[in-house]
Amino acid sequence: MGAPAISIEGSASIGWLHEACGFVADERFYFDPEVRNARAVEMEDFLARRYPDFEINFFEANMIQSAFWRRDQILVGAIQPNMILGMAVGAAFLCPGDKDPDIAPAPLADLDAAGLERLRGIEWEKAGPIPRFLGQIDAMRAKHPGRPVIPTYFWDVSGRASFHGPVTTAQKLLGERAFMLMFDDPDFLKGLLGWIADAYVTLARLFASRAGLAITGMHVGECSGCMLSPSQFDEFSAPYIQRMVDALGPGRIHTCGLSNHLIPCFAKLKNVRCINTGSLTSVRKIREACGPGIRVETAPLAKLLASGTPDDARKFVDQSVEENGPEGALGIVHHLDRGYPEANVLALHERLIERGLVRRGRRHPAGG
User: Fold this and answer.
1) Phi, psi (degrees; rounded to nearest 5) at 6
2) What per-residue confidence (pLDDT) applies to 1?
3) Rounded to an integer, what distance in angstroms lies between the CA atom of residue 185 and that of residue 250?
4) Closest CA to 169 of 208, 200, 215, 123
5) Do strands 149-150 and 251-254 pair parallel, antiparallel, or not at all (unpaired)?
């Protein structure tokens, strides 16, 4: 029996980069693919020069995979998944430049049964920014025939699609009404959740086909899942996640927040290869429920990185490795965000290097 495969990857936020070097993520960054690629490479090289010994990148957290990122890739429509769906139904795009963008809140707050029926009739190739992105895919493929053009909902050359979870997306579209509907009108909510799952699958296939990209799997971030009870997750989230995984899997599941109570729910999902979580969610309990065959990715508490100590970070690493046990792939993931002491973040990497579990260095050095 060999040692488990262990890795670590960090992602610097827009806010951190803005403070560190004046980076601005304006509308051109999101809507001009050539500008996006040039600025992304510039920021990646900035991080490579600053952290030559550590895997800390300018990769959208939980979206871009370091092993599948290429300097010459051209991202089209690289905006968070539920925001694209929100813009497609009329939400305005909000772009402050010095931090992550968003959309105007709850564009479907007043949705009723008739409105849901209209959603089912959307012609996606005419909706919101989608025709613009489809046109950009065509233009970039024609202009740069030797470079990989990565379509909307995909972030690197791997072919893995990325979405928000059905409940998380419903919250984005309806606001907090999404949770009230679990009690007031569960059947209506389930109709919307089914529409969300089907919309993501349809759009992923549309964009992948346009770019000539084979779909190899999917990531779904049910960020709001930790606020659900196990029975609510099983009723309102799991069936629609499973629908998406059945269509596009294998799957990678992410939740924010302490999610120990949802581990039995995750274990019931089929064809899931990775569980990505944090906030003290137990690696040991995931291993006990899901076995060594699944990859586990865990993140330290934001509070630890923001106001803890390097010793706290090292203890987090040690605990994660111990709980993982002798088998099963383990990934430690983290953000480098505004206000985090650098020493806390780097201690995560240094501890794994000290233990001989990862090598010093990075996959993508500056300029190459």
Assistant:
1) -125, 140
2) 44
3) 32
4) 200
5) unpaired
Please write down the HEC assignment for all residues of the chain: CCCCCEEEEEEECHHHHHHHHCCCCCHHHHHCHHHHHHHHHHHHHHHHHHCCCCCEECCCCCCCCHHHCCCCCEECCCCCHHHHHHHHCCCCEECCCCCCCEECCCCCCCCCHHHHHHHHCCCHHHCCCHHHHHHHHHHHHHHCCCCCEECCCECCCCCEEEEECHHHHHHHHHCCHHHHHHHHCHHHHHHHHHHHHHHHHHHHHHHHHHHCCCCCEEEEECHHHHHCCHHHHHHHHHHHHHHHHHHHCCEEEECCCCCHHHHHHHHHCCCEEEEEEECCCCHHHHHHHHCCCCEEEEECCHHHHHHCCHHHHHHHHHHHHHHHCCCCCEEEEEEECCCCCHHHHHHHHHHHHHCCCCCCCCCCCCCC
Strand-pairing partners, residue 220, are 163, 253
HSE-CB for 274 with a 13 A CA cutoff:
20
Contact 166, 221 (CB under 8 A): no
The per-residue pLDDT for range 308-367, each reduced to its tens digit, is 999 999 999 999 999 999 999 999 999 999 999 999 999 999 999 999 999 999 999 998
Residue 280 CB burial class (10 angstroms; 0-12, 13-18, ≥19): middle
Strands 102-103 and 93-94: antiparallel
What's the token pair of residue 315? 């203890």
Q: Which two tokens stand for residue 158?
A: 């791997």
Query: What phi and psi, each to the nearest 5 degrees, are found at residue 220?
Result: -130, 125
Structure token pair of residue 38: 């040039």
| pLDDT above 50: residue 188 | yes
> What is the Cα 346 distance to its own chain's centre?
22
Count of Cβ atoms closer than 10 Å to residue 239 Cβ: 14
Token digits for 152? Answer: 């909307």
